[in-house]
Amino acid sequence: MHHPHIPGAREVAFPQRAEGPVLSGVPRQDGRISGPWHLPSDPLACRRARTAIRAVLADWQLGHLTHTAELLVSELVGNALLHTDGPLQLTVERRQGLRCRVEDGSRKLPRRRSAAPDDEHGRGLELVHLMSSEWGVEQTLEGKSVWFELR
Fold first, then answer.
1. What phi, psi does 43 have (nearest 5°)?
2. pTM for this structure?
3. Confidence of residue 87 (pLDDT cuts 50, 70, 90)
């Protein structure tokens, strides 16, 4: 998903680990769940989510899932930035495979669309559908959680 550069935004170097200044909050890390991490409501959220997923998958020795997980988590975070307001959170769970959840403060449910060849948007959830083992949406107390699984 393309996110236009915002004038005045500054580039920030991130450490390799998904802790400290990369994402706010102290993520739970017990070998089965990592997070939740609070993501900013700005274009850096996608970059920070990819950094987190990369670090978690390296720790869990699931590096073979990294490229797909980074792409799909970027899509979910990007969709949340485009279509919702309020706080975002990322949580990663180790199950038979991997489950990534992005929570936001909106109750409006996402929907897959058929994008025309020259449409700028509308392909994100279709990518998630095609590239994940499974995906879905769950209502939460504050909004919703959109998730995908990779095996």
1. -60, -20
2. 0.76
3. confident
